[in-house]
Design goal:
This protein is mainly α. It has a domain of about 70 residues. The chain has 4 helices and 2 strands; from the N terminus they run E-E-H-H-H-H. It has a two-stranded antiparallel ribbon. The termini are far apart.
Length: about 100
């Protein structure tokens, strides 16, 4: 099935690119842009994005590698724990207290 009419990309092309990228680098994060580049093409109108991503999601090799899962959550929790070395009244909008 043709997924992108502008660049003539089929569902088979998308699956082959995903399988090739995963075999070349098991830890890679696969995005639509990387698939276009792997196929030597570039996105044009963007009308196919929903179908393109839906086709990507059907591939078993698309999963994020286990050791990379939860990194955003961990970074957010770490950021919440720190005050980044700032004093309590570091914002201009906060009234200063007399010391």
């Amino acid at each position: 099935m043709i997924v992108c009419h502008c660049t003539n990309i089929t569902d088979h092309d998308i699956h082959a690119a995903i399988d090739w990228m995963r075999a070349a680098d098991p830890a890679t994060i696969i995005t639509p842009g990387k698939i276009y580049r792997a196929l030597g093409k570039a996105a044009d109108c963007g009308g196919c994005v929903a179908l393109f991503v839906g086709t990507m999601r059907k591939n078993d090799n698309l999963e994020v590698p286990m050791h990379l899962r939860g990194l955003r959550r961990a970074a957010t929790q770490e950021k919440e724990k720190t005050d980044e070395g700032r004093r309590q009244g570091h914002r201009l909008s906060e009234p200063r207290t007399a010391q």
